[in-house]
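Bumping with the actual sequence this time:
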Amino acid sequence: SRATLDAVTGGASDAAADGLPSAGCASPGLSAGDTTRTLQVGTVSRSYVLHLPAAYDGTKAAPLVLDFHGIGGTGATEMASSPYPPLLDPAGVVMAFPDGLKGPAGTAWNVGPCCVAGVDDVAFARAVVADVGQAACIDADRVYAAGVLTGGGMAYYLACQAADVFAAAAPAAFDMLAENVGACVPARAISVIAFRGTADPRVPYAGGASSLVPGMPITFLGAVGSFQAWAQIDHCAGAASSADTNGCAQYSGCQEGVEVILCTKQGGTDDPGDPTIAWPVLERHTL
């Protein structure tokens, strides 16, 4: 967790001071409920919704999940529609729902060649983790990224660019991009469980060129192509398994014991994935 703390606090080494303990908290911080918090990231004011479930008591360091919305959404709309809170709330897992800035197609995330220009959303995500750690009792070794559509793209991008902060990622309804997959060199091997539907109208399962965002053309690697890319990134050995009863195939023998999983929903469109499948995978992995 030391790398996490250094990354989000500029090198501070006192765990109590930077608010990201690994075991417990002397002060409970905020009580359960939802609050909108604002941050200054460089010269830009950013916001997110912090969700502290009723089961969170502030004395035991809890996992943190950042859940990113799709194009046109907000943190509040993602919190309302995400399947994660109903599953994670009883376990006391803290969640944060960041607000994207407006791009050519609406609020979204900068994942390289798309979908909002001139904004550092990786720095924003790091700042959210640091801010939640100041406000609540968070285990810095158990921070995860999830998201749907471009939010899924953001979860992928954080796995590439902020593996020192995020222990694992669960993207849905998006793929890796041919334009910048070569720049995905995580600081450590990181587990990724992806959810894709074969009938997604905006992110074709097979991949290909997309002009979904005006002026920002991209090329999706496809669901299987993204799966294979992560197997290479995480130095997995051998071939992928056959899909199980949930449609999930997996590479084994990956570096540092991480998992690379693709869950395919036949006839599925752009749904956000299944947290009953994703969460057991995510929580198996820590920094």
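The tokens above came from a reply further down the thread. Confidence is low (pLDDT under 50) at residues 1-22.
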